[in-house]
Please model this.
Amino acid sequence: MTLSRRWVLKGMGATVAIPVLPSLLGAGDAQAQGMMEARNFINLGTHHGACWERFMCPTLPTAGVTRQQYAGREIRSFPLTRTVSGSDAGVSPVLTASEARFSEALKNKMFVARGFDVPWYIGHHTGGHLGNFARNDANGMDGSVAQQNAVRATIDQVMAWSPSFYTDLASVRERVLVLSGRMSYAWQNPDTKSGAIQEITPQADSPQALFRRLFPSTGMQQRAPIVDKVLENYRRVRTNPRLSRVDRDRLDDHIQRVSELQRRIGSMSACTPPTAPVPPYANASMGAVIYNAPFARNPSEQAAWFRVMNDLVVAALGCGLTRVVVGLVGPNMSSYAGDWHQDVAHQADAADGMRQATLWNSYNRFFRDVFVDLAAKLDAVSVGTGQTLLDRSLLTWTQESGHRTHDFRDGVVVGFGSAGGRFNTGLAVDYRNMNLRLEGASEMNIITRPGLLWHQWLGTVLQTFGIPKAEWERPQVNGGYPDYNFANLQWQSINAQTAWPQAVWSATGDRLPLLSV
Amino acid sequence: MRTSVLALAAVVVSACSGSIMGGAIDPVVPSTGGGTTGLGTGGGGSTSGTGGGTPGPTWEVPRFACDAQATPAELPLRRLTQRQYLNVVNDLIARSGLSATDRAAVTTALRDDLAPFPADRLVGVPGEKHGGFTRLDQALQQGHVDTSYAVATAAGRELTSSNARRAALVGACATDSNTANDAQCLRDFITRFGRLVHRRPVTPEDVTFYTSVAGTTPVDAAVLADVIGLMLTSPQFLYHFEEGDPMAAGPTTLDAFALASRLSFHFWQTMPDDALLTAAQDGSLLTEAGYAAQVERLFTDARTNQALDDFFSQWWRNDELPPLNTRIGTPIFDAFAGANVPSATLHDEMNAEVLELARHVARTNASVDELLTSRKFFARSPALAALYGQPAWDGTGSPPDFVQPERHGLLTRAAFLASGSANTRPVMKGFRVRNGLLCTQIPPPPPGAMATPIPLSPDLTTRETVEQITEQPMSSCRGCHIGLLNPLGFVTENFDALGRVRSTQRLFSDDGMVRLEKPISTRTAPNVAGFFEPVDHAGQVHELMGRGEFQTCFARQYFRFTFQRMEDDVKDGCLLRSLQDDALSGKPMAEVLKAVALAPSFKRRDVR
Model:
């Protein structure tokens, strides 16, 4: 990876809209590191879903729709239309932000894809976002089965440990920057892809800790690191004949981790460390932002905290310290004081629409204050030849469920960035089969129609980033990710074979049409 | 009435196939002893939840079966848990020889480096969302390695950052003007400090390795820092390093130092103290009397309290009690709470109270049953005491009894009652008792549970609401809720969501006005110990739980906590049976807890 290209903050006519970033990065001082080749994946997940389509999704227009037959149904795409109302602009009620921030240009780097299904009852989960269906709450027998049989590494980790993704690790401090627990899962020994799949807990859960992790002080190190000797010690002890085979396997796992530490210690970044974050945001963890003053039930303060985290994420990506960032957004971004889980999310379909309004407004706060903020900041960083960091990235927002809580049907992915030209943007795509319906007509408010499989979305992401199928696909199971086909339906008015026929499963190995270039 | 209750029990059988405990058996089918479950009936009766049998006196708890030839699978090298790691680092600083001021300074300097050490997750029964122990989390993450490396290098740097610190830690030879003694000085330090770090004497090979970083300036501060850094990243430090004979015919008896560590980490969650290391060194730990004396000493020591707290707080799922102050400012909650406005720490005070109960039982000659039935009062804070309607206990002397007659024992303590809202949560109360305290596995809710709102009258009590939602005829919810969950929540509905005694439930309008006040009902059929008759209060449920299911669950849970893994009912049957028998016999709980460490299986490891 070269250190030649300077990256600068684009004026964008709205530099003032990103006031923290210049000071953080030391404007004009940081350098892109092979940015023209490096492409980034960032995924933020939110809990529950259950946002009705009329609030979440752009409306299908009467004209300008591209239609295509695919996997036994007609799929559709259409240009996103940004409607300005007062100081806001949006493509749907949820996907609305300040007009100044959510500009027409930024809208043109956005996509909304809907019609992704987990073809069984997963209920509450956090692992499904990125492919570990086993991390669910077992709110149904399907989930219980998946807990036993669907334990998989998540795609962020598949990417991070693929030699095809990080072809040069010289500047990389974090293969994956994990911002929260319960989303990222990897092997006990990721280098050999062996051992139990385990949750990756974040190494830094506050801006200050994240800053320390990304930009460690160099002044403390007076001598050569002892990490080489640590490795030597483990290899020495490993020969102890009074250990069992499994003990030595355990030491091998540790040795692999020390090797990764050795690599990290040797990583080099040309970036000048940015300004450290300051209180009250610096030391607040995600948990504190959920529960503690001044953040709890205060979406403005929560948004301010996320803006600081976004600054650090952009700095990490811009400096080439990582290329993958994932996290679950803990706070509800709402001032609601009650039991969000039971009284809002689980009551989202209540007839009066009050809880739904609370819910979709919270998602709008997330989009407005967190997601667009991050997209805009990524778009403010030029990597040369007219491209921005956002152009080289795929920034996605995934939700736990579709339009009904507990139910991962008609899942929606909101994205920014084309991953270096691999994705079409400025459009909405709808993969649902409009000739079928999953629930009966008596269901209030929502008619869910079967779409394509979540496996295909995850497989598309892996292919987009050039991860060879040989590293993750098991075609005898399906062509997407993960290789878990359980298709037991307990909650549908039609059977699985009708909803997701072989044509749908066979398509899982394809890059998603209309969306992929 | 009896007829209808038994009819409900039949519904349970047909609709809810929960299984008891580790997932190995199905209570619908009375166990016949041994087999794959390891549990056999102790005679007559049926297992809990079966229905159809004669309720009450003839029921006996299924017993574990002992197969002395069975050998359970061994865990690979266990890493220190987060708590153990933090304790050991602190202990090493405390035993470094540095002055109090310097020790405090080192501790402060390491704080930021220690913070990222990954917190251990609760690991429990596979497929269950709730419960578990952090000790069972043996995942090895990059964070463990990165953090321990950062701490080790920082500790080396801090411990040697001045002449005074080096002299205190290494000895005068490290700072005197005589360079001829430097090499020996370093070797002596490695031998002495290494014995603490490795928790056993270092080998000559270890000394050779550690001195290999020395070069020509063996007691230079940077060299000493590197040596310390290497020690604190070593497998002997970060893992429970227990050697054995891979070629042996069976499990290997631990050597004295490994045994000392196992004892110390089990009871104190940290490294052995000098006395224990000495007992290992002089061989007395390997004698029956010497070992028993150390078990007694360790258990009696106050340092065991942390492990007791961890065990009971995790078994009882104290972490599931949310902060109780999050709804202050909303009309309904404010009206509900009245003068008892919860602080941000009230939930911690509630949890502390039940942990004090557990300590009290462990430190007196009280039996495991006392955990359930004790009416001793331990609330230290005025706010918590006010919920109980009596003055706070100052912690001196014998704790008083509850003054409110409705306080029958464990299930009537605030930590098992409070919900964080203005409403109780009977289903979750029942789940916690059935799944957590009785180790009964509950099948997952059906698809769509809770996703479709059921229109409810605003005039219903919480119990009536729960009944409407979960006990609809022909619904898939009904079996488990009637048979397993709701009764154990309903029986404490005479306490509100802050744990206050009540006889009525106030129903509020959105603006916080009392719109209606309705009498509560605690009458329910608990389905515990094969008993399907109606009961009226928690005291009766405590009595039924104490007929064996609670003690058996205790045995399982303490096994998991001790051995850091799930039990195998067959291969671990002997120890489980012993624990179960002790708990059921009414022995003091302290004796049961100590007995685990005295068991043969505690003292050996299979490295084949």
